């Protein structure tokens, strides 16, 4: 038996049911098209990102291969001696490639998100002005470090301060640069630890892979040793090392004896320096120490001390140009003018002027 209340309640007409059905079908069609366009946007973003990464990779590989082929010229040593060597072009190109890849990925993601938001609700972008103002205020107060990291990273790469493969000292870490982005730099030290250094925290950079390096070896000998004979043996051993084909391309200049460096206790310190390629400094230093040890053993001179030296501070500043300081032209010194006498005897025929008091007349 049907309740009187249910019987009295209005029942939807067939036309009403058709209207609800049509509205539901229209919603499904609109949602389906929106989802389809969202999928197309995501697929287009992924395809564009892949194309751009492939294009950047092809350009980087083309520049790297070109630099390597040009480095095979006859005057390879002159190319390596230049601060703008081909290896710097390779390292800088790879660094710029990684930076451009990051920028392209971020730009594509932002554009894809805005497109998806517009597809789902076009009215949201109408209030984008307020949203951008809020984002700007948030960046001004809460994201200052991120902005600082990005700006500093752009300047570091643009000025070629760091390149992938460089051996650098950034204060917070020392090692080989493995990756550079607009925000962080990856540095792996000699122990294998990977350091993530924010670009905004880098206050100074010491790049050990640009231009050239210098091996500085201090040789300590007893006080009674013949210093001239020791220096001749050291220089001969270093020159023999330079003549070998293995080391000829790694050493950029002839060895130099900077002479007697210090005298302390029972040891006399003599300094030998060799200018090398940046990536060959440690190898040349090891080989040179071995040669020096053999040469001084043949000379019969014991070695209380034989160590590589890293000059810092005032010693580094005074030794930048080594044992060959710049020559200056001698300056002529004009002799001072003799002071004028307070009184001079009057000449013949003149009546002016009388000798001062207390002075005898001529």
TrEMBL record:
Q: Which compartments does it reside in?
A: Cell membrane
Pfam families on file: MS_channel_2nd (PF00924), MS_channel_3rd (PF21082)
Domain Mechanosensitive ion channel MscS as annotated: residue spans: 145-209
- Give the membrane topology, semicolon-separated if more than one: Multi-pass membrane protein
Instruction: Keyword check for Membrane, yes or no.
Output: yes
Report domain Mechanosensitive ion channel MscS C-terminal positions. Answer: 215-301
Keyword annotations: Cell membrane, Membrane, Transmembrane, Transmembrane helix
In terms of InterPro entries, this protein maps to: LSM_dom_sf, MS_channel_C, MscS_beta-dom_sf, MscS_channel_2nd, MscS_channel_C_sf, YbiO_bact
Q: Name one GO cellular component term.
A: plasma membrane
Membrane-traversing stretches: 24-48, 99-119, 125-143
Molecular-function GO terms, alphabetical: mechanosensitive monoatomic ion channel activity
Disordered: annotated segments: 319-362
Similarity comment: family membership: Belongs to the MscS (TC 1.A.23) family.
Q: What is this protein's name? A: Small-conductance mechanosensitive channel
Record the organism: Microbacterium oleivorans
